[in-house]
Amino acid sequence: MTSNEPIRSLPIRFRVEVLDAAQVAGVYESALEILRRVGIGTSSDKLLKLMADHGQNVDFEDKRIRFSPEFVEEKPSDL
Fold first, then answer.
1. What is residue 18's three-state secondary structure?
2. Entry pTM
3. Per residue in 16-70, pLDDT tens?
């Protein structure tokens, strides 16, 4: 059965904290490590060059960008 009524969010008083602050920090640090070690793949030569120009570890052959944690945390204003 389908309905055309929009889905409503729960009121704030029902907010559930799934992770505590330490767990959120752990997820954040793990994400930074993944971006540093694994990076992202892209088919955009323009993006590869832009990230290389901003000092990121770019593998032009594999078309992969690995980001320094400092870059992720302090995104340059000219991007």
1. coil
2. 0.72
3. 778 999 999 999 999 999 999 999 999 999 999 999 999 999 999 999 999 999 9
Q: How far apart are CA 78 and CA 14, in angstroms?
A: 40
Q: How far is CA 54 from CA 17, 42, 57, 75, in A?
A: 37, 16, 9, 10
Going by the DSSP 8-state scheme, the letter that residue 14 receives in this structure is G
CB 56 within 8 A of CB 71: yes
How many helices (H) and strands (E) the chain has is answered by 3, 3
Which two three-digit tokens encode residue 73? 């945390």
By CB atoms closer than 10 A (0-12, 13-18, 19+), residue 67 is buried
Q: Which token pair is 28?
A: 């954040």
pLDDT for the residue numbered 75: 75
Neighbours of 18 (CB within 10 A): 6
